[in-house]
Design a protein that fits this description.
By secondary structure, this protein is mainly α. About 80% of the residues lie in helices and about 0% in strands.
Length: about 140
């Protein structure tokens, strides 16, 4: 058993710790998409509609699954196109909706600035990963 785990770990090119961290981010993204799909946030779904909520949660699921599958073997073209891009698009939709809700609630003193900030922070690992892998289709360190 330990031999198999070691072999899997050795199959990941350096920097292994970063790739495993991104793998975890993609898995959490998938879980977030599934949770949103099954139990959409009522404060967002109501004004937004069930269809658009299903779209951005579906983008999280697609991007998270593809990212988790592609990050460790270094299939950068697929990670960029089908992992990072859908997640960032889903976050952009979510950010837009929250911004509109913030704007609409300003007259009553309601604020969604914290939500807006958290969405921007949540986009950071995907934006950084996209910048790190933008130059090649496949990881050049692969043997």
């Amino acid at each position: 058993m330990l031999f198999r785990i070691r072999r899997l770990w050795d199959a990941i090119t350096e920097p292994r710790h970063l790739k495993v961290a991104y793998f975890v981010v993609y898995v959490v993204t998938t879980g977030t998409g599934v949770a949103t799909w099954l139990m959409p946030p009522q404060s967002i779904e109501g004004p937004l509609g069930a269809q658009l909520t299903a779209i951005w949660s579906g983008l999280f699921i697609l991007g998270g699954l593809v990212g988790a599958v592609t990050v460790l073997p270094g299939w950068w073209w697929a990670e960029r196109l089908l992992g990072i891009a859908p997640v960032l698009l889903g976050l952009a939709i979510y950010l837009s909706v929250v911004a509109v809700l913030h704007w609409q609630g300003m007259s009553s003193g309601a604020s969604r600035l914290t939500q807006l900030g958290i969405i921007v922070i949540a986009s950071a690992p995907f934006a950084l990963r996209g910048l790190l892998i933008r130059e090649y289709s496949y990881e050049p360190r692969r043997g």
